[in-house]
Amino acid sequence: MFQSARTNGQIYILHKTDEPYIEVGTIIAQPLTKPKYAIPQTFGQPQEFVTDLSVKVNNNTVNYTGLPAQLDIADTFSNGESIVVADSKEAMNSEILSLKQKSVDTVSSVDFHNKLIASYDNILSNLNPEYAERKGQEAELKMLKSQVGEISKNLAELMKSNSLLIERLSRQGGQL
Which of 94, 103, 118, 162 is most buried, most CB within 10 Å of its CB? Predict the structure, then answer.
């Protein structure tokens, strides 16, 4: 738990960017635990506490404030970046495995969702003739673009072979 963290203890920081990476820092000052809210809670409700940590990471001091004191892992933001801070390797391992599984599940569901999209397009086409016409026009435009691209490619190849033939003829003095 963050409230039990001590000076010189390790903190694990997972940067949840498009290319996630992890850093390990060292607590450089005794963590400060305080009530989450300045006003007292109503009678019977437990008081929530948060912990502020000062951590040395790659020779820089980083302050993480408002971490839930009773937890050993928390999502937070630092410099506009989503991060996960943990005070144990086990908690961070569990978080990374969970994030990985979420990505695996997302990738595994691509075919399912592509089928859903096709089904929804079909339903919309049946319900809405304008939608069907627009989808037909889009398909026709895509096909025409493909054909124009193929024609351009063939024309470029033809021009290249003609220029090679002309070059060969000029070297031979115009004789076939």
Answer: 94
Give the SS3 label for residue 64. strand
First to last CA, the chain: 89
**How far apart are alpha carbons 26 and 56 in whole angstroms?**
5
159: part of which helix (H) or strand (E)?
helix 129-171
pLDDT, tens digit only, all 176 positions of the chain = 888 889 999 999 999 999 999 999 999 988 888 888 877 666 667 778 899 999 999 999 999 988 999 999 999 888 788 999 999 999 999 999 999 999 999 999 999 999 999 999 889 888 888 888 888 888 899 999 999 999 999 999 999 988 888 888 888 775 55
- Distance of alpha carbon 126 from alpha carbon 120, whole angstroms: 10
CA distance 10 to 89: 9
- Give the CA distances from residue 2 to residues 37, 68, 82, 144, 159, in Å, rounded to whole numbers and listed in that order: 18, 7, 19, 62, 72
Query: What is the residue whose two structure tokens read 């997972």?
Result: 14
